[in-house]
Amino acid sequence: MGIGKKWAMSALVSCFVLTMVGCGSNNNAAGNGTAGEMIKFASDASYAPMEYMDTDTIKGFDIDFIKAVMEEAGIKYSVTNTGWDTMLSSVKQGTEYQAGLSSVSITDERKETYDYSIPYFESTNMIMVKEGSDIKNALDLKDKVVAVQGATTADDLMSGIMGVDNANLKRFDSNAVALMELNSGGADAVVADIAIVNEYIKNNPKEKLTGIIDKENFGSEYYGILYPKGSEWKAKLDPAIKAIIENGKYAEIYKTWFGEEPDTATLLSAE
Amino acid sequence: MDFRFDIIVHYLPVLLRGTLFTIGVSIVSILFGSILGLGIGFGKMAPKAIFRWPFHSYINFFRGTPLYVQILIVHFGVIPAFYGTTNVLLTSFVALSLNSAAYSAEIFRAGIQSIDPGQREAALSLGMTKWQAMRFIILPQAIKRMVPAFGNEFIVLVKDSSLLALVAAPEIMYWSNTMKGQYLRIWEPYLTAALIYFILTYSLSKLLNYIERKV
Amino acid sequence: MEPIISVRHLHKSFGAHRVLTDINVDIHSREVVVVIGPSGSGKSTFLRCLNLLEQPQDGDIIIEGTSLMAKSTRINDIRTEVGMVFQQFNLFPHKKVIENIMLAPVQVRKWPEDKAREKALELLQKVGLSEKAEMYPASLSGGQSQRVAIARALAMEPKIMLFDEPTSALDPEMVGEVLAVMKDLAREGMTMVVVTHEMGFAREVGDRVLFMEQGVVVEEGAPEQLFGNPSHERTQEFLSKVL
Fold it and tell me: C240 CB near a chain B CB, below 8 Å?
């Protein structure tokens, strides 16, 4: 047993310790609130640019948005990257985490189990294909092989068009894998949130991809904060959300992330 | 805790199809895996180290890396290289067979090496070839000892096949995930999946007990 | 007359450990040669070299005019003519007694099943175990097991039989039944090489006795000479301990 082995051992231990510390400090940014109460948000930060991890820091539109909301409300908060499943089960219980912030689309089926905030983001799904594809709109996808991230509204929409048990509709764990399937020739198209698709096309110009918007078949959908049924937080935070949308703070954040003006009128009239 | 049986009923038909997929993939993979594993197991017992090396590496690689990553490599690397595009059915068979072969190889090797060397010597002293000694004397005894380990491997394989959901293989976990997405509920899909896997593996272990008593 | 086994300058080592040094022995047809010596003297290794269960490093073994060390020799063919009986019997536990005996004649000699069965039953009768034909080895006593093992080796109709301490693993009361079978065999004229600690057997049945120690043949001779009047000091010392 020489120096080398000892060195490797201590390096290993250091890595382990650093990892543990990383977990502990868990990405929470405290607000400026003075009241004793505090709300903890759970998130699945694997959905750039909405929420994602930049090494050990959680970032994204949703994160900046909630910061503005909590400043407006004057309540302490934290956001933790728990992953999707943990977020769902713990928000349903409402004890450890009182809310979910993760670009969760508002649907009637989900409302059977959860409460939502007022809509805070308007999104639409978008089709991404390779350049030169004969696909022009969502209905063209009916007989094609389509890759989506499972458990998203893209999944819902395509299940509606293609049938929930259609083998040509491939649901992946994340958009990253779905996009890889398109690149490897295993799918003719990917359907995902507009923000995701644009971001991907922008970052991968070599892959010769184009996005298709189909307003007719892919209607607008809205994201909401996820609460357990009967949560008192809804009443506390909804006015703050409304306030920052109305006072221009929301548009400011939106522009830094997407480079364009949001349609706040539609957002406020939705629900 | 509220539990919604209605959404399980709604998903039952596709879950059953997923179950058939899981069973099919597991059976094909354990078969191909054992055949391949037998070859690799013999390779690892080669008298010269240089011939053992590739088999040794194969086993180390497949036992030492996560199946999760192996599935991705097979799906996006290996299959497109041979087949042109990705193909989830091929990925399922190939990834699980290759992985299972590594474990089967070790089961074979351990089983064969557990037989008293005197058995082989007795066979050889009667004029049998090495192959005859293996076929008539060593393998029949070794296989009997391997059955429990193989049963374990089969059960692990059935459960591991759930990782194929990663590349959208329409198996049990995949449909559970779909159910989860539609309703954003996790206990109904996951507990249902767990129950199905339990029924599969429990029946399997009963079947293996029966086989163990027979051989 | 040409010896049936001729061992010339045989050397064997396991790694750096020398086990056999320059062994030279001729064994003639119908001869019973008994090999004695202390544990670790190399006598079992010597025996196992005669059918190449151990590969010697140097020297030659010629059986019926064929060199075992020649590249062209097919060792399986030699082994069909040289039967072997092991200390631990090494019966095949997954096969019935009769199948243990029939297997090699059918698979190696390519005899038809009927012929092999007939031969097996005849041999079982010879070793006095006809009623055990359909049993599995696990139900046999040690003495019975060793008698089946002898029958199994004889089924190949070998010209030579090697016995590697055939009675060492047996309870004392079972030694006699195995030695009785071996005596019969010797009387019928089988060429036998026997490694044993049974000095009584060596004296009574052996035509010639080899005394080995530390990998060399120290002394050889007729039993009455070797036991009665050993010429070598080490032989005397060994015999004084075991007799």
Answer: no
